[in-house]
UniProtKB/TrEMBL annotation:
SUPFAM superfamilies: Oligoxyloglucan reducing end-specific cellobiohydrolase (SSF110296). GO terms for cellular component: chloroplast; photosystem II. The keyword Transcription regulation does not apply. The keyword Transmembrane does not apply. Keywords: Photosynthesis, Photosystem II. It comes from the Eukaryota. It comes from Marchantia polymorpha. This is Photosynthesis system II assembly factor Ycf48/Hcf136-like domain-containing protein. One of its GO terms (biological process) is photosystem II assembly. Residues 113-434 form the Photosynthesis system II assembly factor Ycf48/Hcf136-like domain.
Length: 436
């Protein structure tokens, strides 16, 4: 898989004891190290101290799935049978356990043509759930987790053929309906982030998860979390703050000096269209395998890049008259870029650049939303209203899978765990599994 990232969809879309002396009020500057507890926070300068070392351990599992007993994944919308207090345990350190009772909402497809390379997987979720990310445990290749809106967390132990709902640790008085947006594993250790700001950590392949406390001073909401080593992770917020931890999330260090808006408003981006007096967030962010990021402004009028070691985000003008929808990394290290209305562009060469050329692709007028690589030469593109396209020459030419047109859902992302295991995720609980 060439890159990991997040596109913030409609309706959605750390760390020091003192701020740098050069920062001014209104510039969200990122401090350099985190305090040990919330009481150690000093003044808020933007990307400042936000995590405490207080961690709550996870008690025993809430329940056991019987295979025939599953429930809706949401209790808030469309008349779900369970109240939120029944569906999500009040304990702050719950183990993940299957829910019992309730009813199964499979999101079964209506009559639709058979896909050549994919199969649609029914899921125990409400219609209206948007799937956002998935990951598998490297040490257990058939064991994975799937995330989405309405606090959706599903688990598979057969490579993605079947999925069961799981719970997340929540506080007794929390009324949030979390949007779980990013998950990453390295070995048996995994991380989950979401919005409103939430961070979960496991060291036992997801058998249990514990909550990592986050301060309300955190600039923005976590949108990407990446497991980078034992007890180590990297976290990015939608305001462009980047933090790293090497002790299981007890302490965090800022990897960048300031948030995106602070960088753009210092005057260094006067030649960047739409960057002056910027107060928005990143609409999409993608991370390459070597830790380089590319992000698109929420309005799509420019993009930014960051490489490990750089002090700030580097802004870039878009090369198309149309606004950018999403960007990510090719298998060869170059960039792909999709614009609103369906255009697809590829950078010339590898790394961060502003030199792009347009690819020949027909999307029926629906926007392309994501591109994923199965191999260096084989790529898939997904988009609105069931748009699913395949390239066998690295993106030079594309063929549409017309059978996907009948799915009738927006296909937001395509992810390949390896050459044999891939998934397309979309709205209304749509999940496609790659057959090869």
């Amino acid at each position: 898989m060439a890159s990991a990232g997040l596109m913030l969809l409609p309706s959605s879309t750390a760390v020091v004891n003192s701020a740098p002396a050069s920062a001014t009020l209104g510039q969200k500057s990122a401090p350099s190290s985190v305090g040990a507890s919330l009481s150690s926070f000093n003044g808020f300068r933007g990307a400042s101290d936000f995590c405490s070392c207080a961690r709550s351990k996870a008690p025993a599992a809430v329940g056991v799935s019987t295979g025939s007993q599953t429930v809706r994944a949401s209790s808030e919308e469309k008349g779900s049978g369970l109240g939120r207090r029944e569906f999500f345990s009040a304990a702050t350190g719950l183990s993940l356990g299957a829910f019992v009772g309730g009813s199964l909402v499979t999101g079964e497809a209506k009559a639709e043509a058979e896909l050549a390379d994919w199969e649609r997987i029914p899921l125990p979720v409400d219609r209206g759930v948007v799937l956002l990310d998935l990951a598998f445990v490297p040490d257990e290749p058939d064991h994975g987790f799937l995330l989405g809106t309405r606090q959706t967390l599903l688990e598979t132990k057969d490579g993605g053929k079947t999925w069961l709902p799981r719970s997340i640790p929540t506080g007794p008085d929390e009324e949030f309906n979390y949007r779980l947006n990013s998950i990453s594993f390295l070995g048996k250790e995994g991380w989950i982030s979401g919005k409103p700001a939430i961070l979960l950590h496991t060291t036992n392949s997801g058998e249990s998860w514990e909550r990592v406390p986050l301060s309300p001073r955190l600039p923005g909401n976590p949108v990407i979390v990446k497991a980078t080593g034992e007890d180590s992770a990297e976290m990015v917020t939608d305001e462009g703050a980047i933090y790293v931890s090497s002790n299981g999330g007890k302490n965090w260090r800022a990897a960048i000096e300031e948030t995106l808006s602070a960088t753009l408003n210092r005057g260094s981006s006067s030649q960047i269209s739409g960057a002056s007096y910027y107060t928005g967030t990143l609409g999409s962010i993608n991370r390459s395998s070597d830790g380089t990021y590319v992000g698109v402004s929420s309005r799509g009028n420019f993009y930014v890049t960051w490489e490990p070691g750089q002090r700030n985000w580097q802004p870039h003008n878009r090369t198309s008259a149309r606004r950018i929808q999403n960007m990510g990394w090719r298998a060869d290290g170059g960039l792909w870029l999709v614009v609103r209305g369906g255009g697809l562009y590829f950078s010339k060469g590898s790394g961060a650049t502003e030199d792009f050329e347009e690819a020949k692709i027909t999307s029926r007028g629906f926007g392309i939303l994501d591109v994923g690589y199965r191999t260096k030469d084989e790529a898939w593109a997904t988009g609105g209203s069931g748009t699913l396209l395949r390239s066998l020459d690295g993106g030079k030419s594309w063929v549409r899978d017309k059978a996907a047109d009948s799915i009738g859902a927006n296909l937001y992302s395509v992810k390949f765990v390896d050459e044999k295991k891939g998934f397309v995720i979309g709205n209304d609980g749509v999940l496609l599994r790659y057959l090869g």
